């Protein structure tokens, strides 16, 4: 097991959910715990990388030696990502695809709304796609959280977001994925794939970092 595979490499990782405010006390979010992204950050740091972790709201301690930036919304996560200088970008965050079109400055009262309330949503920026399609993009690794046709959807995201690698997990399985301590994934690239059986997110993070580094250094100009 090599300890310095990432030596001299600057890696930015996003983790956790984003929170999209509805009013001062309510928000839209999802079940991401941050465990997968935090494990990837800890492993990358131990493998010699300079790691920045951009984290949505989670309850995990900061991994030692990792520069952690805390954000809430997708827009804040994008701004934090765009402010980084990085060689590798790993997008593990479960970014909310939509946010409320308007954020009420005051708590919304049910007396104003009656029995049926509507929320108008607008699309959030795609953080990964924005970073991957900038003029001199870093080496970009995405995740794909799918509940069906995992391979097809993951390959579609690999193409559409212009990624080097995509890590697909089946989030319909409660034993893995969101909030679980374990995960099982298949990593896809242009002309290959590799599967990793269910294991702790810590172990998986080490194995994934080894694979990411192999591909990064193979493709590096
Ligand atoms: O946090 P845990 O509880 O440990 O769970 C881990 C996980 C299931 C959240 C993780 O393994 C995972 O799958 N993360 C990606 C979740 C996701 O939002 O996937 P997606 O298929 O919707 O998005 C595809 C890719 O685009 C992802 O890399 C995502 O970070 C990125 N994206 C999506 C939307 C958006 N607006 N901006 C993005 O950058």
In short:
The protein is α/β, with parallel strands linked by helices.
List the helices and strands and how they pair.
Elements: E1 10-15, E2 20-23, E3 26-28, H1 35-46, E4 50-55, E5 67-70, H2 74-82, E6 88-91, E7 98-100, H3 110-113, E8 121-123, H4 127-132, E9 139-146, H5 150-160, E10 165-170, E11 182-189, E12 192-200, H6 201-219
Parallel strand pairs: 1-4, 1-6, 4-5, 6-9, 9-10
Antiparallel strand pairs: 2-3, 7-8, 10-11, 11-12
Question: What do we call the CATH homologous superfamily?
Answer: CoaB-like
The arrangement of helices and strands along the chain is EEEHEEHEEHEHEHEEEH
State the low-pLDDT regions, or none: none
Tell me the span between the first and last alpha carbons.
25 Å
What does the main sheet amount to? 8 strands, mixed
Description:
Pathway: Cofactor biosynthesis; coenzyme A biosynthesis; CoA from (R)-pantothenate: step 3/5; Cofactor biosynthesis; coenzyme A biosynthesis; CoA from (R)-pantothenate: step 2/5. The chain is of the alpha/beta class and 221 residues long. The protein has one domain (10-97, 120-219): Rossmann fold. 28% of the residues lie in helices and 29% in strands. It has 6 helices and 12 strands. The chain has helices at residues 35-46, 74-82, 110-113, 127-132, 150-160, 201-219; strands spanning 10-15, 20-23, 26-28, 50-55, 67-70, 88-91, 98-100, 121-123, 139-146, 165-170, 182-189, 192-200. α5 (150-160) links the parallel β9 and β10 (165-170). α1 (35-46) packs across α6. The two termini are 25 Å apart. The relative contact order is 0.17. Bound molecules: ligand PMT. Residues 16, 32-37, 74, 91-95, 97, 124, 126-128, 142-145, 157, 169, 171, 177-179 line the site of ligand PMT.
């Amino acid at each position: 097991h090599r300890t310095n595979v990432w030596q001299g490499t600057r890696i930015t990782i996003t983790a956790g959910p984003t929170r999209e405010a509805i009013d001062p006390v309510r928000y839209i979010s999802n079940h991401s715990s941050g465990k997968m992204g935090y494990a990837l950050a800890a492993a990358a740091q131990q493998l010699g990388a300079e790691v920045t972790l951009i984290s949505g709201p989670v309850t995990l301690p900061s991994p030692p030696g990792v520069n952690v930036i805390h954000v809430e919304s997708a827009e804040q996560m994008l701004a934090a990502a765009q402010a980084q200088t990085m060689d590798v970008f790993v997008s593990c965050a479960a970014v909310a695809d939509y946010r409320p079109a308007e954020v009420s400055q005051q708590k919304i009262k049910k007396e104003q709304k009656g029995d049926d309330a509507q929320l108008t949503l607008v699309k959030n920026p795609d953080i990964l796609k924005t970073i991957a399609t900038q003029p001199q993009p870093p080496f970009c690794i995405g995740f794909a959280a799918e509940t069906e046709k995992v391979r097809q959807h993951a390959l579609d995201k690999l193409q559409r977001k212009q990624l080097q690698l995509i890590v697909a997990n089946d989030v319909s399985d409660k034993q893995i994925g969101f909030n679980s301590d374990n995960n099982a994934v298949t990593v896809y690239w242009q002309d290959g794939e590799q599967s990793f059986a269910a294991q702790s997110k810590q172990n998986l993070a080490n194995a994934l970092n080894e694979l990411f580094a192999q591909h990064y250094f193979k493709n590096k100009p």
